Amino acid sequence: MPDPIDPQKPPAPTTDATMIMLGPAGESAKTGRDWVSDWVWNRGGAEDAAYTASVVASELITNAITHAHVPGEGIAVRLYTSRRGPVLEVLDASDKAPEPRPGFSLSAKSGRGLMMLAFLVEAWGWHPRIAGGKTVWALLKTEPAPKPAPERTPPAPVPPADDRPATTR
Length: 169
What we know:
With 169 residues, this protein is α+β, with helices and mostly antiparallel strands.
């Protein structure tokens, strides 16, 4: 079993570090999501791993745009391979910590993202940056999602019982 991960310290990079800068506009989430998905896919990730990585990227980038935007500042998205797997980082200019909302409503249009994130990644956390702002990171899952159980073939229908009384002759 691997050592536990410190939520303020992501796994160290080993290879493949790359970064993209995004503006603070809504279309940045799509650009970042597509970039992350392509990165995972191009490194041999399964289709569902690439899709999950894009959902995680969308959540973290959207949170940075919505809750951590500082006028005049963009968002950086960094990806790298660590000894434990691929790591996604979103860097923004806000010092405000990401906080999951307790007691969210299932009918709410927002507020579930960080709670959902915990199910989609191996680990996640954040840490302040020395120059100001913060980095929110996620250790992406590399194993394919479990496949659903195959559909069962229903048993053959039983013909209806004959309700007519037996006749004797």
